Amino acid sequence: MFAVLSAGIAPTLALMSFFYLKDRFDSEPLTTVFRTFLYGALLVFPIMFIQYAFMEEGIGQTPLIRSFLLTGLMEEFFKWFIFLYTVYKYTDFDSLYDGIIYGVAISLGFATVENLLYLLAHGVEYAFSRAIFPVSSHALFGVIMGYYLGKAKFLTKNVKRSQFSALLIPLSLHGFYDFILETVPSWIYVMTPFMILLWMFALRKVKLANQQEYKNVVVLAEKKSQIQ
């Protein structure tokens, strides 16, 4: 049991630390990040129940529907919904990069519980591949979702478009991820370049968010100097 818990939680700590430490200016309170993580963790059970009900009834069990609707849309929608109606109202959510932190936290909360349940059912020998693929992908979907929700709150007049992008892009990527697993026999040869591109795309959002924070710091410093 201890081995399963350690193997299930370790990738979460590594990924959360990585993205948390990427914030170069004003780190979020750990208590708020952890609370967001718990929101994501609690989402697993109602989503699994709904997915199980569809499976038992034999509804939507083609690879395309299962990948893009029952998994991609359902999981990313609930994370997006919880983000909009909880995190979006945090007083600590005051910069673009904060969106990434909270997006990663809610996604890793979900991924951690899902990962622990999988390892308990199938064995700790799957821990490494689970860390590399599903847990990492959830974190990266969270980066993308958080970036666009941060952009919606702080950077753009097209708020609805950015909010919609925060749902559409992660669910599309998530659906494609599952579709590869379901339909490609030697999936590792397709999944590996997909994950590399996903990392590149997500890290690009991290870079853009930090650049925007740097601009905000410079503008604030200039205003202070003018006042003095």
TrEMBL record:
<dbReference type="InterPro" id="IPR026898">
    <property type="entry name" value="PrsW"/>
</dbReference>
<feature type="transmembrane region" description="Helical">
    <location>
        <begin position="186"/>
        <end position="203"/>
    </location>
</feature>
<keyword id="KW-1133">Transmembrane helix</keyword>
<protein>
    <recommendedName>
        <fullName>Protease PrsW</fullName>
        <ecNumber>3.4.-.-</ecNumber>
    </recommendedName>
</protein>
<keyword id="KW-0645">Protease</keyword>
<dbReference type="InterPro" id="IPR023596">
    <property type="entry name" value="Peptidase_PrsW_arch/bac"/>
</dbReference>
<keyword id="KW-1003">Cell membrane</keyword>
<keyword id="KW-0812">Transmembrane</keyword>
<feature type="transmembrane region" description="Helical">
    <location>
        <begin position="100"/>
        <end position="121"/>
    </location>
</feature>
<feature type="transmembrane region" description="Helical">
    <location>
        <begin position="162"/>
        <end position="180"/>
    </location>
</feature>
<dbReference type="Pfam" id="PF13367">
    <property type="entry name" value="PrsW-protease"/>
</dbReference>
<keyword id="KW-0378">Hydrolase</keyword>
<feature type="transmembrane region" description="Helical">
    <location>
        <begin position="33"/>
        <end position="55"/>
    </location>
</feature>
<keyword id="KW-0482">Metalloprotease</keyword>
<feature type="transmembrane region" description="Helical">
    <location>
        <begin position="6"/>
        <end position="21"/>
    </location>
</feature>
<comment type="similarity">
    <text>Belongs to the protease PrsW family.</text>
</comment>
<dbReference type="GO" id="GO:0008237">
    <property type="term" value="F:metallopeptidase activity"/>
</dbReference>
<feature type="transmembrane region" description="Helical">
    <location>
        <begin position="67"/>
        <end position="88"/>
    </location>
</feature>
<feature type="transmembrane region" description="Helical">
    <location>
        <begin position="127"/>
        <end position="150"/>
    </location>
</feature>
<keyword id="KW-0472">Membrane</keyword>
<comment type="function">
    <text>Involved in the degradation of specific anti-sigma factors.</text>
</comment>
